[in-house]
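Local shape tokens

___
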Amino acid sequence: MEEKNELDLDKIKRQFLEEFRSGKPTFGKDGALGPLLKHFLEAALDAEMDLHLSQEQRQQGNRRNGKVSKQVRTSDSTIEVASSRDRSASFEPQIIKKRETVLAENLEPRILSMYGLGMSLRDISAHLKDMYDMDISHDTLAALTEKIVPQVKEWQARPLDRLYCIVWLDAMHYKVRQEGRTVSKAVYNILGIDRHGHKELLGVYVSESEGATFWLSVLTDLQQRGVADMLIACIDNLKGFAEAISSVFPQAEVQSCIVHQIRNSIKYVGSKDQKEFMRDLKPVYRAESKELAELRLLELEEKWGRKYPKVLESWQRNWDKLSTYFKYTEPIRKLIYTTNTIEGFHRQVRKVTKTKGGFPSDMALLKLIYLSHQNISKKWVMPLANWSQTAQQLSIWFGDRMQLDLK
């Protein structure tokens, strides 16, 4: 006699072909594969219970204790699945976990990924409604994103490598609500290249405003997390920044961003002179050597020094930090003469955060930057182009500080 729960595979096959040809859903309560899915899930749950009820569990008096049914939503419809219970209530099924009502693989990571791509909680809720006909409240989604707070804190405190060859340090600025008012906050980001040529975001920090004093605390934190040396630090022209780096990493060479210096200079040059001034300035920072660059800088001062003395004074005053890159070969020069590398990362983050007018807290801001970084860093799997050649050059320049993995 045929058992009630035995599957009619021929019938399932015929129904599946009809539904497949017509484009109808094949899973769910009324779909051809619904009974098959139900059968598979219940069999898997039974197998999990068998594994759970080991000899030790049975000796402790634990036994099966009937079954409980629950509705589980698939991408097409809803099916009812019966799951076994045990007397001690210690059974934790894995294929459909307790309180799980949606059969969507990695739904929680998907929600976090959507949030990390800049989707609002309202948009995520609407998407889940379309995909799974599932209503998830704004509060529920907000609570879900809060679950990553320990993960963010752990990431912020994680140990770092002893050496980073090139490190870019720069800040972004956001509006954050604080004590009933909206204030501007600086987000300090540190992007490094390890000795194998891989990018790594070393840290993200939030402060009231950008300043050398806070950068000093950031650098100290990097040191406490294991960074003993950085070969070249690339920064903007913030006053006191280079000194802060030297106080924590005295051997690090500091390169101030040429592009920042140019932008700051051109702001103080009259609009009618800007084109000509830039034409005369270009031979300075594009010179083949530091000696040639200094000659071109003197020529620039002779021509424009009287008209724009503060601009030329700024170049002379910052020249040691601006000219560091001249000692290196062209591939290294391209990496360090500007902070474009970290600014590129900032542009990608801003694509995610641009829809947010302001953040309710520092942690809300950190969560979104962390999640967007998780998506961005998926592409950081390969070392920088021609890194083996660059690494050899750095090892020549820095000796024992940059050791190669030669067998």
About this structure: The chain has 18 helices and seven strands.
